[in-house]
Each structure stands twice: as C-alpha cells, then as structure tokens.
Amino acid sequence: MGKKRYFVSDDKKEKEGTAKKGKNKVIKTKKKDLIYKVEVRPNVWGRRREDSKVKKVKRIPNPNPKYPGKAPISKELLEKYSRGDGINKSGIKTGIHKKKQAQKERNIDFTTEQAARVEILLTEDSGYLEADDGETTTQFTQKQIADSVDIAAATKSFDLKLMDFGPYCAKYTRNGRHLLLGGKKGHVAAFDWLTKNLHCELNVMESVHDVCWLHIETMFAVAQKEWVYIYDNQGIELHCLKRLNRVTKMEFLPYHFLLATASDQGYLSWLDISIGEIVTQYNTKLGRLTMLTQNPYNAVLCLGHAKGVVSMWSPNTRDPLAKILCHKSSMTALHVDPKGLYMATAATDRSLKIWDVRKLTGPLQSYTLRSAPTHVALSQKSLLALGMGNVVEIYRDSCITPTRTPYLRHRFNIPINSFNFCPYEDVLGVGTEWGFTSLLVPGAGEPNFDALEANPYQTKSQRQEAEVKSLLEKIQPDLITLDPTSIAEIDIPTLKDKVEAKRKLLFVKPPKINYEPRRKGKGKGGSAKIFKNKKIVQELAKKEFVKNVKDITLETKSKKVVKNKKPKNVLDRFLPKK
Amino acid sequence: MKVKVISRNPDEYLRDTKKDLYKVPRNFDPDLHPFEAAREYVRALNAVKLERVFAKPFVTSLDGHRDAVSCIAKNPTELSILVSASYDGEVRVWDLAQRKCLRDFAAHEGVIRGITYIPDGSRFITLGDDKTIKTWKTQMPQFGEDEEPINTILSKTVIGGISHNNRGVTFATCGEICQLWEQTRNEPIRTYQWGVDSLHDIRFNPVEYNILAACASDRSIILYDTRDSGPIRKVVMKMRTNRLSWNPMEAFVFTSANEDYNNLVFLITNYIPCYTKVIEDIVTTLHNAFVFSLYTFDTRHLKHPTNVHMDHVSAVTDVDYSPTGKEFVSGSYDRTIRIFECDKGHSRDVYHTKRMQRLTSVKWTLDNKYILSGSDEMNIRVWKARASEKLGPLKPRERLALNYSEALKEKYAHHPQIRRIKRHRHVPRHIYNAQSELRTIKEKTKRKESNRRAHSRKGDVPYVPERKKHVLSEME
C-alpha cells in the first residue's frame, strides 16, 4: 500500500527538513503562514495502534476555589441508596468482560450518587415533638398536641362514637388516604378520612372478623361469619368467596395481588384477586390462627402462635420457611415494620421483643412491661405502638437502642380492639369497643411519598392508570421467598448441594432402555432372536449404570477405608472378634 | 413544647387546572420501592413478550417482474431507489417509499447476472449472459425517448458477476477470468487468472478500495489487489462459496455464503466412472459438511474462518452486511432469510413467508432499517431489519420506555423463561424437519467420531474445532 499525503506544501526543502526530524511540527516560513507537517504512516489494517495511545485529557484545575464543584455526599446517605457491594471481579477471566463489568459497576455507583443527590429536592420534613426543660413528651395529651399544631393537621385528630356495633377494626389504604372500619357486630364503613367523605356504610347482618383493602380504594374484602366477601366502594357485594371460610385475619399483598387469609381451623390461603383463583390453600396444622401479619419486604406471612412461636409462610411450600421461638409463653401480638427490618412480638408474660427479621437470630431488644401488651404496631419511621387494655403507649427509637419511657401515652375509657399507623401521615388509628379514634403521633410517618408507588392525592384517572401498570407488573407467587433479591442473583450450587446431588445419584433407578431392533430383511432373526437381543442390550445398559453408581460409592467411601487402616500386629489374630 | 406533624398543602400536590400535567413527586428511598428485583424481572418478561408480539417484519412486496429476480442493487446516494434485474433480461427501477415501479425495460437477452451502481449513483451497469456489459442512466428517459444504454461493451468471455470500485472509475467482472474495466474504455484494463476454474461472484472491498475478492467454482475464494498484476491469495474450502460480502466497517473482514452437499452428490455421480479417490475424498467431506453455513474470514489470517455462522438448512445463496458492520443478512435456498450478528454463531432472527420461494439475493438498506430480498417467485420483498421495531418517529417518552425495556431485556437475558421466549421462532415445517434431520446427522457423526476415538490409539483421532473443519488450504 502506498503512502498517502494529506498535506502537501509547496516548499520541497521544508519537507525534507521535517522528514529528518520525523516529528509533527509547526514551521513558520518567511511568508508568516502556518504549514502543518504531519508524518503520515501507511494505514494499518484493523484496529489502529495509535488509538490506544491517545492520552487522557488532563482536568483543568478549578479557577474559582470558592465554588469547589459538586457538594460531597455523606457516606450514610450513599449507604441508604446503595444496592450492596459490587461483585468480585477476580472470577472474570477475559479482559473485555472485566471492562464491561467495571462499566456496569460505575453506572450503578453513578445512579446511587444521583439518587442520594436528589434527596435535596424532597419538600416535606418529618414531624417531631420536643419537650422543654422539666417536661416530658409523655405528659402531653392529644388535646394539647392538637391545639398546638396547625388547623389542617388538627383535623386529623378525631373521634368516631359508634356505640352499637363495636368493637371495631380499622385499616388504611396503602397511600393512607382511605379508612375501612369493620364493627364486630356487622357494621362496615369505608371513607376518605382526610376529607371525612363517606364512600359507603353497610350492615352485613353477620359478625365481621376482619376487613382489608384490596389493591385500590374501590374494593375491599370483609371476613364475615362464614365466608369472605368482597365489596366495592358503594357497598355493593361483588363476590362471596366460599372457599375462604371462617377467616379470622386477612392481609393483602399488593405487588402480588394476593389476598392472604388465616382461618379458624388453621388454614392459610392465598387468593389471586386479579384472576380470582386460589393459588394455594393448606392447613398449617398449628390450630386456630389469630395473629397474622405480612412482611412487606418479602411478602412472607408471619403467624404468631400460642406456644410463643412465630412461623413464616410462603405459598410455595407447605412447611414454614422459618420458625422462631420468640417467647416462653403464649403470644398476644406481632407486627413487622413497613421497611421489613424489624419484627415486634409480645407475649402474655408481659415481655416484648424486637427482632431483626432478615437475620432471625436473637432479639435486638427485649423488654418487660407493666402489663401484657395485646396489640403492637410499627410505623414507617419505626415508632412502636403498644396497646395494653385501654392504654396506648408509643415508643421512639426502641428498635435499636433500649428505651425506658414512652414517647406518648393515651388512655381510653374503653378497651382497644386494634390499631394501625397511617402510612405517610403522623397518625395512629385506634379501633375501640365504642368506635374509632385517630391519634396524632408526631414523627410516625414518612413525609415524602413517591407518587408512582403510593399517592395520597391520586385522581381517578391516575388511579386507573396505576391499576393497569401494577397489574402488568404483578409478581408471580412463585417469587415469594425469604430473600426477594434472589431473582437477580446468580444461582451457584453450594458444595453442600453438589454433595447432595451426588448422593442422590445412588438412589436413582436404572433408566429404561427403549430399544427398537432394526428391521433386517425377511427371514433374518425371528421374534425370539429380537427379544434376546433386546434383553442383552438392556442388561448391558443396566450393568454399566450399576458400575457407574459403584464408582460414585467408592469415591465417597474411599476416605473412610483409609481411616480404618491400622498397623497390623502378628498377635492381632488372637484378639476377640468384634 | 415544640411540635410538628406532617401537614401537606394540597395545592402543592394537585394540578392547578385540568390542562396541566399531574404533579408527580418522587422519593427514591429504596424502602419505599420494595421487590425491586422481582418487579424488574416481571417488566423484562413483559418487554420480551411484547417484542415477540410486535415482531411483524414484513413490510411490503414489490411485484412486477415476469421471471425470477436474479439480482438487486442499492442506490448509493438515494435511499428509496432500488434497481432489480430478472432472469428474463428485464431491469426494473423501484421507488421504495411509494412502493411502485418507476421504470422497466428489457436490458439483455437472457439472464442478467450482475447489476451495480457507480459510486455517485448517476448510472448503473448491468451484465448478462449475452456477454454484454451495458451502462444505463439512473435518470428516467425523456418523453418519447427510448431506453438506450449509454455504453455497451461486448466481452470476449462469459461474464458472471460485477462489482464497482467504491472510489474510482474502475469495476471488475468475473466469469471465466477476472477482468478489471474502466468506465470509459471498452477493453479490460487488466485480467487476472488463477487456475482454469470460472468465477461466479466478485466484490470490491468498500473501504480498502483496491482489494477484490472473488468466489471460484473450484470451492475457493481468491483475493486480488488491483494495484498488483496477479491475484494475492486463495483459500480453498470444502464447499463452494456462492457469494461473499465485505464488512463495511472492518475492512479486513468478509463473510462468505456457502453451498451445500447437494452439489457434491451431483459431482459423485459424474465422477464415479474414473476417480475412486475423488469419491473417497468427497464422501469424507460429506461427513463433515452437512451444515449450511456462512464463514467470516479475517483477510490477515485466512487459514481458517474467525467465525462459522450456522442455521440455514440448505445452500446459502446471498449475504449482505448492514451498514453498521455489526450484522449481516443471508438468504438461502431453504426459502428463509436469516439475520446474524457478526460475532455470533447462530442467527438472531429468521424471516419467511408461505409464498416466498428460494432466495436469489438479499440486501441490507443503507439506512440500516430494512432488508430487501429477491426470490425465485418474481417478487422483491421489503422487511424490517429489526422485526419488532416501530416505524416512524418516536416520541421522547416512547423512546425512553423502549430504551428501558431494552436494558431490562439485556439484564435478565439469561433467565430461562426470558431466554426461551426471546429465542423462540416459528419456522415452516420443512425447515423444522430439516433441522431435526441435520441434528440427527450431526449427533451421528459426533457419536461415530467419539467411538472411533475411544477405540483407537490416543491422539489418532484428534479433536478438530468446527472453525478448522471447513478450510482445505490457503495458497499464496
């Protein structure tokens, strides 16, 4: 291939001069015009070597040190948005894949940093209650709190007197905007509790055991005396689920569209409400189930039992995924916090324990209280509410550090039946014998919601849009496991699995050989001969299989054989035989 | 006492008028977004399903030819113009955007073997079995004017293929010998010959514009340099190469489309009387060569191909690179078009219709969006290069969504469910049967080889990688 000339100068001498030096130079001629001399090499085929030698551009130092560039982000904040450490790159063998992986890691780091930076755009601050010197936060009554907050917030503290059909259980929707009340004696009401706008109110003329919102605020399920019914927000009965009978507790798994129920006879069932089919239903064989809560982090159901045991269930196995002995006496209440970090359990021996649900080892905190709590609830900001008879006590920071005094206390005249923290609000909704009371708990809720996840200000069209989106993203029940990220991880069999697989081989039946003898010409080999051949082939295959199995057994047993070898003595023969 | 509870002003969260966009406050706290991995997986699954749902690659069919389409040429300067030639000597010029024929005329007597545009797109050259090379204007003749070639050259030898230099005035033809022509001259400026076998396809390298490659009927590929007086190199393969195509981005890479063994069977019947040795050779070749493959070569290293692309079940008749040089399309005698990624051994997509017969030529358009195919049943078909791509402009949100699902598909590509859906293609029964037959044959040879290996001395039956099986020799 010939040399190409890109820049040709008129002056021949100049050209020769530069060729000797062999470097690119700018030469000033007498005429004061610039001529660039470029050394031209023949083109090489393939990747140009020069490309890899291009120097990196040096960073220009900051001319104005007053503005040092992007603000540094604290490690804690980065930790909050981090998805864990990157993968170990030592296992990657080829350079190109190493580079690709490095690029991926850089992208992930970049997104983490961006997400952490975006936190500055959050508009709302979380609530708080601070006492002056000589005061404690416990001493403030609901009236005092309601009087000192703004009018809009004060309306969130209210009391519904429903004397006839109590005791009441109450549930909030996922966006915290709507409230569902179920009175034991049949009264069911759904309303927007912020505007106090009633959707529907009905009497089902049966006992009501539990109520539960479905994926949107236009549908809810009610566990009645025999069966579970589904109503819409006008109070019209949509379905009667006779396969779910004598249900005591219900939980809705919003991302899986599953209505999980626990029944009087010990049955657990998961109903897919998008297709109306029961995914799994089985008997836990643990008797009457009265305590049911879901772990929102992994959609596993947690059941509390009278023996002080908490068991965790998924629809994929009939055995519990985990069983923890939490208390030595019978349990009264349990709840998992909305982040899926902590589990609070309470027992009749006045004890209360906080557990790390991901670890399932020893309690983080263990408290003994003045009386046995009958209800517990954890809020989005990990405030702990305890119900003891007619008293509600709320504790702050009780999960990580041991606390002694309650943050807030509220005393009712009547026993309480259930309570729930309202998501995205500083409110605790308490259902009592005589109605429903909404208590203000400053600092309980997450102040900044994500509108694509749960939006309290959702309009009808937004709701419809979100419903379609969430239906498209419905997670299959098979994916309910203790570790919800397992789907994104590489499935590498552990040594234990490998050994197990090898051991299993020993008990495999020899494969059936389907031997089709070739049709030779007429008169060659009768049916007897064919049958004989068939037998021979099958026997051969079986022999080979048995031999393989033997090899494996020898492999596994060979170590033991070595162990037994001892130096033999001539007199050993006179030892008594074993 | 200092107290504050969450109290949101609805005005900040609700839109002012009905014509406003909804306010969507975001909080990227991972705790508020549970089941991240599982939801992503479901999205990836949906994306890959939608990809299959929207995979409707067939765009249109251009009919008008009265005989099978023999070759197609793309206009290098205009995207919508296409010229095609058929076996009855007719040339047609098509407007792809309007999907109609602009011009048709009888150019040659007998089959047209090659057609090519000159690089500025102002003229095109055709050649036929009547041994003439004719140059035509791209512009339509004026009203009342006849279709007349601007130039007609009568060749002394039979000619079978043409390719124009990408940057000059020269073009090359093949046939009995390889000839280099100049547009203005009526005699070849240079002729090349290596052996006595005829050549049936020739291609100029689009980047290294002095390099030529030709396929010879003695199963070889010959490389020429137009600055040299003789050919440079020759690779002899086990199978005949039908067509080849240079990678427009990597000048040193070309892909060849190879013949099947049907041809060899024909050879056996011819050879039987005299050459028993030849038959033996061919029979051993037969054992290895039941695959209908494309081979990607690196001209710097011709000893064996850098990649073997398998999937066709019959002879591959034509191949053309995409302008990005990342993918190429191949047409086959098995009535399917397949799209391969350059570095993958198997095709990423297969196109077929009930009515499409044996493919004679395929082309990838210069906007990287469409594939053109000419086939035996007189039609030219236009296909989308990416089967599920939306045609027309994309709105920004649409593009974002597509990019996102593309990324998800890549992230979860190795999940069995996703991989299965992504890979699944429906193929006509004859392809399906042929595939299973080929699989059996392949298994059989593999088994036989391993048996042979087991019963012979160590090292007597070596392991030969697939890449090294198909090249007989390289000559300089």
TrEMBL record, chain A:
It comes from the Eukaryota. This is Wd-repeat protein bing4. It comes from Holotrichia oblita.
UniProtKB/TrEMBL annotation, chain B:
It comes from the Eukaryota. This is U3 small nucleolar rna u3 snorna associated protein.
